C-alpha cells in the first residue's frame, strides 16, 4: 500500500527527521578511532531518547540494537558490538527514529583517517544519491530514480546490490513503492505529491555477490569495500524536498 501523507503527517515525519539530524550531528562529532560500535549505538540511543523519541530498529524483525552500523565490506544491517573502529574504516550509520508514531529512516557514511579507495566509493555512492533524487517530481516514475543510480554506479565502475532497495516510509518503516538500485527509465510506480521515499544507493566493489551472516548483516562475498547512503525525500507539487539534509 502506498501512503499519500497528509500535511499533518508530513509535519510529524519532519519532526522525526529533525531528531535524526541531531543524531547524525552528534555521532559525526564524537566518532573516533578506538571506540566501539556499541559506544556509538549508545550515543545514538541517548540523543533519540533525550528528544522524546524511540529507536525504530530496536526489536524490528528481531534486530537487537538501536541503530545499524556497517563497516567496510559490511553493506547493511551491521549490528553494534565490541568491535573497535580502526584508522581508515568506512562506517555507515543507518538510523531510524520514531517520534509520536512518525518515522524517519536515513543513513550516512563517514571515513576515519585517510583511505583513498573508501573515499572513491563513498563519493560515487553519494553522487548516486543526490543525482537520483533530482529525478523525483510528480508523474515521474520510480524506474527513473533506479536507472540513475545504476548508471552512475557503472560509470564509476561499481556494482549495485540487486536484492535490497529503497522504499516508502513515514507511517510504517517499510512502505511501497520499492525503489531498486537498478532499473529501466519510464518504468515502475508513478510519483505523486505527498509520497515520502527513502532513496538508498548501495554500491559494491567488482561484484554484486554477497552473503548474509547469522545475525543478518549483509557482507560482500569478495570482502571488498561497499557503501550505503540514504535520504528521506518528500514528493512535492513541483519536485522534491530532502527531509534529512
Give the secondary structure arrangement, pairings included:
Layout lengths: L6 H24 L6 H14 L3 E2 L12 E4 L2 E3 L13 E10 L2 E10 L4 H18 L8 H14 L3 E2 L5 E3 L6 E5 L16 E4 L2 E3 L5 E3 L5 E3 L5 E3 L2 E5 L4 E3 L3
Antiparallel strand pairs: 1-4, 2-4, 3-12, 4-5, 6-10, 7-8, 7-9, 9-14, 10-13, 11-12, 14-15
Structural features, described:
- There is one protein chain.
- The chain is of the alpha+beta class and 245 residues long.
- The protein has helices spanning 7-30, 37-50, 116-133, 142-155; strands at residues 54-55, 68-71, 74-76, 90-99, 102-111, 159-160, 166-168, 175-179, 196-199, 202-204, 210-212, 218-220, 226-228, 231-235, 240-242.
- The chain has a five-stranded antiparallel sheet with strand order 8-7-9-14-15. Strands 1, 2, 4 and 5 form a four-stranded antiparallel sheet that branches.
- A hairpin with a 5-residue loop joins strand 11 and strand 12.
- It is globular and about 45 Å long.
- The two termini are 26 Å apart.
In short:
It is built from four helices and 15 strands. By secondary structure, the chain is α+β, with helices and mostly antiparallel strands. The longest helix is centred in the N-terminal third of the chain and has 24 residues, at about 5-30.
Integer average pLDDT:
98
Q: Give the end-to-end Cα distance, rounded to a whole number of Å.
A: 26 Å
List the total number of helices: 4
**Which band does the percent of strand residues land in?**
25-35%
Radius of gyration from CA coordinates: 17 Å
One letter per element, helices H and strands E, the order comes to HHEEEEEHHEEEEEEEEEE
| Oligomerization status of the protein chains | single chain
How many β-strands, per DSSP? 15
**How would you classify the helix and strand content by structural class?**
alpha+beta
Q: Could you say which overall geometry the principal axes of the C-alpha atoms support?
A: globular
Main beta sheet:
5 strands, antiparallel
Helix content: 25-40%
**Spans where pLDDT lies below 50 across 5 or more residues:** none
Strand order, largest beta sheet: 8-7-9-14-15
Amino acid at each position: 500500500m502506498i501512503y499519500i501523507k497528509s500535511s499533518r503527517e508530513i509535519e510529524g515525519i519532519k519532526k522525526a527527521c529533525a531528531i535524526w539530524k541531531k543524531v547524525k550531528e552528534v555521532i559525526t562529532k564524537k566518532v573516533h578511532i578506538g571506540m566501539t560500535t556499541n559506544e556509538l549505538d549508545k550515543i545514538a540511543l541517548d540523543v533519540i531518547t533525550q528528544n522524546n523519541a524511540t529507536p525504530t530498529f530496536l526489536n524490528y524483525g528481531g534486530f537487537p540494537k538501536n541503530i545499524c552500523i556497517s563497516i567496510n565490506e559490511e553493506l547493511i544491517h551491521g549490528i553494534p558490538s565490541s568491535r573497535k573502529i580502526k584508522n581508515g574504516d568506512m562506517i555507515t550509520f543507518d538510523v531510524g527514529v520514531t517520534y509520536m508514531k512518525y518515522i524517519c529512516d536515513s543513513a550516512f557514511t563517514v571515513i576515519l583517517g585517510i583511505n583513498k579507495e573508501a573515499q572513491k566509493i563513498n563519493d560515487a555512492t553519494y553522487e548516486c544519491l543526490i543525482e537520483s533524487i533530482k529525478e523525483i517530481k510528480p508523474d515521474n516514475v520510480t524506474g527513473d530514480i533506479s536507472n540513475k543510480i545504476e548508471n552512475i554506479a557503472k560509470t564509476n565502475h561499481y556494482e549495485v546490490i540487486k536484492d535490497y532497495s529503497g522504499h516508502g516510509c513515514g507511517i510504517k518503516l517499510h512502505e511501497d513503492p520499492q525503489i531498486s538500485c537498478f532499473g529501466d527509465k519510464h518504468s515502475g510506480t508513478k510519483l505523486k505529491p505527498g509520497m515520502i521515499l527513502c532513496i538508498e544507493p548501495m554500491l559494491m566493489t567488482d561484484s554484486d555477490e554477497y552473503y548474509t551472516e547469522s545475525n543478518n548483516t549483509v557482507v560482500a562475498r569478495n570482502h571488498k569495500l561497499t557503501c550505503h547512503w540514504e535520504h528521506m525525500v518528500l514528493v512535492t507539487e513541483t519536485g522534491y524536498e530532502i527531509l534529512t539534509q
